[in-house]
Amino acid sequence: MRNILLAATAAITIGLAGSASAQDSTVSGAAGGAVTGAIVGGPVGAAVGGIAGAALGTAIDPPPSEVVTYVREQPAPAPVVVERKVVVGEALPETVVLTPVPEHRDYAYAVVNEQRVIVDPRSYKVVQIIE
Predict the structure, then answer these.
(1) Among the three residues 57, 76, 101, which one is the final residue of a domain in this structure?
(2) Which residues form the signal peptide (predicted)?
(3) Does residue 84 surpass a pLDDT of 90?
(4) Residue 15 structural domain
(5) Which of 102, 83, 101, 92 is nearest to 124 (CA)?
(6) Are residues 73 and 120 in the same domain?
(7) Pick from 5, 13, 8: which is nearest to 49 by CA?
(8) Which of 41-55, 59-73, 79-93 has the lowest mean pLDDT?
(9) CA 29, CA 47: separation in Å to the nearest integer?
(10) What CA–CA distances, in Å, run from 40 to 47, 52, 104, 122?
């Protein structure tokens, strides 16, 4: 039963990941998924988890370069401290005040835990951390 479930999950995930491109988010999603899958299901779990992680990783596209440039060049908004690590793909608390990026309504930014982060203002998910 377990093998059937794993095979079905792999087949569905492969179908969803077919059009995925090789981006940073895909690579990190695949690595995270593989580790999680290995913990839960051993070698087969690692393979399925890697595929699922790659598919989920592609859901967060990096912002256009002009958005990154804009965020880097702007004066820093009031910094915010949250009690957890800021991670790409995870949502910030909705108490964090976001500053919109003009002409790019799909992006906003904030300074969280001394890092500039680009965020999807609809979901509060971190899209990119500016180094």
Answers:
(1) 57
(2) 1-22
(3) yes
(4) 2-57
(5) 92
(6) yes
(7) 13
(8) 41-55
(9) 13
(10) 11, 14, 40, 32
